[in-house]
């Protein structure tokens, strides 16, 4: 079975390959890497060479010469592209911040700008998949994952599935804090009700062998203080919500505090990653062999994970991530679990980004939601969930309107839809601000301008 990774020069690609090397099923017979940056993909290929050393039957790796070469004959396609690179991310963050609104890669104005730039490229990828590998499954890592998956589904239907490691990371950490043995999660003894959009969802039920754990967890300050989301949101607010929010909801619930933290910092997350990863690839190109390149990658990876969501942590009192916080679901593990569930027709339950169907009746059937799915050889089927509370549904409807307007703007070069997407976002407080942000972004990248 051939696995193609688009964005094969991405910093996280070795995590996927390492998981493949540890995969006892050996279902992947070849990994094909494709990236528009030849230097980056050459460096990552060296890291993979080092990872493969010592394995009896390492998965062969090939670097493709072009997109069509990468896609032809693929059984699975992992799409993890970054249109515009980290330089584009910096603009997505800095332009909104200059107007006094949050700039973040997937949330708020920055997320809309990133979507406008990325969706046309993602659609082209979807069209080439449909032409060259019509039976392939596309697993979308590319952010903003909800928007991008929704756009690609216009071409690929249910054969594109979006993934994110934030929800399963939340479930794992909450289950551990509630006293469940980590092995219980692996054995399927932990049940959960999670629903929302990508980077905007809530864990509303958590069970161990049928026994509900969430109410007890919400009353236990010490347990809540033992994991990342408990510290981010605080016990009083979590008890008020009666649910555990995805970490990205901190930008919505604590907008003022997070914005102040970001504006006071000398560099945005994008600027940090631009320097860190840019420096990594420069040093790695001259490192002199796979062993040195791998050691450099491992040090850089740990630093990246330790600084994740630093501004939100600063806004909630300032604290360091501990080992449990670093144990998220892992994009690599989620992606491989999804792939195995499709190949094995297993009925595995995973939190994924898929077409809504009737899961949230107030949303369109083709709208992408993030929720618990049952995965078989036919793909991922969203499971029924309990009705959403009014505050949850209201926020979902508002942000979904933004996502769909962004897709419309990107597909049709629709300036009105672009302005609507920005101005209606809950973290953008003025159509005039939205118009200025669009004009500045369009000057750099040719995005649709607002009125």
Please state the CA-atom Rg, rounded to the nearest Å.
Answer: 21 Å
Number of separate helices: 22
What are the segments in which pLDDT stays under 50 over at least 5 consecutive residues?
325-329
- End-to-end Cα distance, whole Å, is 49 Å
Oligomer: single chain
Mean pLDDT: 91
* Number of E-state strands: 13
The coarse silhouette is globular
- Please identify the structural class as seen in this structure: alpha/beta
Strand content: 5-15%
Largest sheet: 7 strands, antiparallel
Helix-residue proportion: 40-55%
In short:
Helix content is about 55%, strand content about 15%. It is an alpha/beta fold.
Structural description of this entry:
This protein has 451 residues and is an alpha/beta fold. The protein is built from 22 helices and 13 strands. It has helices at residues 13-21, 38-52, 67-71, 85-98, 108-132, 145-156, 166-177, 182-186, 214-218, 221-224, 228-233, 235-241, 250-253, 255-264, 269-285, 290-306, 310-315, 323-326, 331-344, 390-412, 415-423, 431-445; strands at residues 2-6, 30-34, 61-63, 76-79, 137-140, 160-162, 190-197, 200-208, 211-212, 244-245, 348-355, 368-376, 379-382. The strands form two sheets. Strands 7, 8, 9, 10, 11, 12 and 13 form a seven-stranded antiparallel beta sheet that branches. The chain has a six-stranded parallel beta sheet with strand order 3-2-1-4-5-6, with helices on both faces. Helix 15 runs antiparallel to helix 16. The N and C termini lie far apart (49 Å).
């Amino acid at each position: 079975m051939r696995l193609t990774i688009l964005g094969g020069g991405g910093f996280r690609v070795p995590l996927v390959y390492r998981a493949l090397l540890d995969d006892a099923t050996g279902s992947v017979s070849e990994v094909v890497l494709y990236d528009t940056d030849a230097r980056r993909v050459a460096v990552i290929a060296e890291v993979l060479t080092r990872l493969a050393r010592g394995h009896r039957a390492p998965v062969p790796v090939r670097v493709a010469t072009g997109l069509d070469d990468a896609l032809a004959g693929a059984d699975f396609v992992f799409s993890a592209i970054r249109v515009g690179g980290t330089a584009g991310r910096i603009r997505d963050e800095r332009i909104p911040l200059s107007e006094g609104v949050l700039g973040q890669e997937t949330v708020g104005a920055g997320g809309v700008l990133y979507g406008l730039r990325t969706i046309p490229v993602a659609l082209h990828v979807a069209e080439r998949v449909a032409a060259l590998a019509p039976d392939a499954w596309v697993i979308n890592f590319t952010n903003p994952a909800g928007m991008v998956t929704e756009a690609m589904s216009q071409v690929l239907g249910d054969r594109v599935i979006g993934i994110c490691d934030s929800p399963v990371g939340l479930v794992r950490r909450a289950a551990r804090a509630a006293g469940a043995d980590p092995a219980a999660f692996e054995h399927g003894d932990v049940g959960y009700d999670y629903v929302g959009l990508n980077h905007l969802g809530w864990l509303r039920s958590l069970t161990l062998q049928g026994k509900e754990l969430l109410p007890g967890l919400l009353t236990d300050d010490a347990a809540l203080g033992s994991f990342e989301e408990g510290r981010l949101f605080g016990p009083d607010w979590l008890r008020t919500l009666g649910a555990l929010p995805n970490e990205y909801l901190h930008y919505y619930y604590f907008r003022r505090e997070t914005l102040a933290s970001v504006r006071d910092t000398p560099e945005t997350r994008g600027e940090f990653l631009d320097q860190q990863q840019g420096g990594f690839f420069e040093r790695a190109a001259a490192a002199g062999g796979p062993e040195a390149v791998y050691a450099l990658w491992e040090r850089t990876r740990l630093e990246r994970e330790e600084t994740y969501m630093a501004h939100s942590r600063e806004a909630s009192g300032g604290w360091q991530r501990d080992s449990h916080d670093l144990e998220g679901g892992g994009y690599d593990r989620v992606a491989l679990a999804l792939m195995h569930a499709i190949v094995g027709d297993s009925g595995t339950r995973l939190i994924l980004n898929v077409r809504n169907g009737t899961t949230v009746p107030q949303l369109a059937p083709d709208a992408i939601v993030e929720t618990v799915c049952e995965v078989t050889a036919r793909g991922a089927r969203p499971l029924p969930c309990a009705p959403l509370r009014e505050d949850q549904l209201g926020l979902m409807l508002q942000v979904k309107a933004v996502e769909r307007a962004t897709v419309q703007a990107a597909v049709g070069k629709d300036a009105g839809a672009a302005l609507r997407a920005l101005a209606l976002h809950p973290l953008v407080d003025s159509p005039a601000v939205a118009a200025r942000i669009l004009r500045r972004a369009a000057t750099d990248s040719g995005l649709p301008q607002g009125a």
